[in-house]
Specification:
With about 180 residues, the protein is an alpha/beta fold. Helices cover about 35% and strands about 30% of the residues. The protein has one domain: Rossmann fold. Strands 1, 2, 3, 4, 5, 6 and 7 form a seven-stranded mixed sheet that branches. A hairpin with a 2-residue loop joins strand 3 and strand 4.
C-alpha cells in the first residue's frame, strides 16, 4: 500500500524594487521573464513533484503544490497579509544598493510579526550591478543575527540556488 503526503508549500519573494524578485520568480517557476514592475502580486503555482524532480520521499508519494508569490518592491504595495501562512521567504537585496540591504531590516520585522516562516533565505544579488557597497560580511552577519540562511548569488549560478531552494522544500516536507 502506497502512502502519500499532500503538501502545499508557500514561497514568498520579497525585497526592494529592482532587486531581482520577478526574475528569480520566473526562473523558479520556469516561466518567461518580462521586465516590468510588479503591481499587486504575481502568483505562480507548480506541482511539487515536478519542481522537486522526484515523486517519493521516505517511501511516501509526494503530491501537492508550490505556490510562489512575487511581491512588488514599492513599499506602498508591501502588505503584511502576503506573509500569512508562508513557510519559505526569499529576501533579495542588491550588493550595489545599500538601501535595498537596509530595507531588509523592515522585511525581517514583518516576517517575525506576520508569518513565522520556517525558512528565510537572504539572497544577495549582483545581476547588472556596478561596484558593490554591501559586503559579504555585512550580509552574513545580518542573516546570522536574524536566524536566516544566506546565499551569495554573485558567485553562484541559478542551478545552485535552485538546488538550495529544493533542499529547503524537502526539509519542510520531512518536518
Amino acid at each position: 500500500m502506497n502512502k502519500s503526503t499532500e503538501q502545499c508549500a508557500k514561497l514568498l519573494i520579497i525585497g526592494d524594487e529592482s532587486s531581482g524578485k520577478s526574475y528569480l520568480g520566473a526562473l523558479i517557476s520556469g516561466s518567461q521573464y518580462k521586465y516590468q514592475q510588479t503591481i499587486g502580486l504575481d502568483i505562480s503555482t507548480l506541482e511539487l513533484q515536478n519542481y522537486l524532480q522526484c515523486d517519493k520521499i521516505n517511501g511516501k508519494l509526494i503530491s501537492g503544490m508550490l505556490q510562489i508569490l512575487d511581491t512588488p518592491g514599492a513599499d506602498t504595495f508591501s502588505y503584511s497579509y502576503y506573509y500569512k501562512n508562508t513557510q519559505i521567504v526569499l529576501m533579495l537585496f542588491k550588493f550595489s544598493d545599500k538601501q535595498s540591504f537596509t530595507s531588509c531590516q523592515i522585511y525581517a520585522q514583518r516576517i517575525k510579526q506576520c508569518c513565522q516562516a520556517s525558512y528565510v533565505i537572504l539572497i544577495g544579488n549582483a545581476y547588472g550591478s556596478s561596484k558593490p557597497v554591501v559586503s559579504i560580511d555585512e550580509a552574513v552577519n545580518f542573516a546570522q543575527f536574524n536566524g536566516f540562511q544566506f546565499f551569495d548569488w554573485r558567485h553562484n549560478n541559478f542551478n545552485q540556488l535552485q538546488t538550495h531552494i529544493q533542499n529547503v522544500i524537502l526539509k519542510l516536507i520531512q518536518d
